[in-house]
Amino acid sequence: MTDITSGQYQIVRSDGTGAVTYGMGAGFIQIDSTTPDSGSVNVQDQPVVGHDGLLFGVDTLPGMVVTQTGKAYTSPSQGSLALDAYSVLASAWNDPYTRLVNNSYQVLRAFYRGSSVIRRAYGRGRKITPTMGLVYTGQVPFVAQFQCADNNWYDDAATTVVIPIQARGFSSIIAPVKLPTTTIPRNLQNLVAVLNSGTLPTWPVFQITGPIQNPSVTYENYPLNIGYTGKVGPGQTLVIDTRPWVRSMVIGTASAAGGMFGSSALIGMQLPVGQTIVKYEGLDYLGVSTSTCSVVYRRAWQSIGGSS
């Protein structure tokens, strides 16, 4: 994934491959307008029986659609080169390695003119339509739509807060001592303040390294918690991904969702705006646990750009 500069955009697969950069100074693609549309609100209002008025229910939003208008062009004009430039963008927009795989997604990165930051949205390139009537002038106007997974723009760079757990001595031994000995796993925990200074709640990814048993993460302010019943061995990492377009719990490539426990589903573990006290705890079943929990998140915004 390469850097982009002011006025540029990039569409890239979720694993960072297949990136195509376009916009100011990037090849032969010019963007004239970028329009995010949050779509129509899905309401669950109910009429008041026998009286005037409404009882308001839960309002939800579909994922926003980002529409870009622009053109592929060359100067001096060469219609064949403009067609080539359009073809490169359109191929990335409708990337078969993404659209033919369940739950796969792309990232749209934007360095909007007038902004001082790069922001990103998650989703898939969908409709891209060229107008061919001006090819003889070296221009291929087009309209492209990117379907987002939600209505947020996110920081391009992730923030990571590491919560360490250090074993202090060995697990207790039950007396009298008989071979084989029986050890009692020691409960370990640590608390760290995590600051979400964006304007919206955001979705964290918890990366828990072993060795640890029955690890859990709790938001002390609320409280909400989620965890895994089982062992994360030495050299293993349990990844709890709460993002709506992923929502998974895996160790390596194997699902660990069957061991999930807690007071909240993944959808409930958004990091609120402001400071959250996050507690990481688990059982040290080896007596030498150096387990850590990394809280990885990107601040969320409703604007495509800003100052921070």
How many DSSP-defined strands?
25
| Rounded radius of gyration (Å) | 25 Å
What is the global morphology?
globular
The largest pleated sheet is described as:
9 strands, antiparallel
Low-confidence stretches: 168-177
Question: pLDDT average, as an integer?
Answer: 91
| Percent of residues in helices | under 10%
Q: Count up the domains.
A: 2
Helix and strand element order: EEEEEEHHEEEEEEEEEEEEEEEEEEE
Q: What structural class should be given to the helix and strand makeup?
A: mainly beta
Alpha carbon gap, first and last residue: 21 Å
Strand content: 35-45%
**How many helices in DSSP terms?**
2
Structural features, described:
The protein has 308 residues and is mainly β. It has two domains: 8-41 and 53-151, Beta Barrel (Elongation Factor Tu (Ef-tu), domain 3); 159-300, no CATH class. It has two helices and 25 strands. Strands 1, 2, 3, 6, 7, 8, 9, 10 and 25 form a nine-stranded antiparallel β-sheet that branches. Strands 11-24-15-19-20-21 form a six-stranded antiparallel β-sheet, with no helix packed on it. Strands 14, 16, 17, 18, 22 and 23 form a six-stranded antiparallel β-sheet that branches. A hairpin with an 8-residue loop joins strand 7 (106-110) and strand 8 (119-130). The chain is globular, with a radius of gyration of 25 Å.
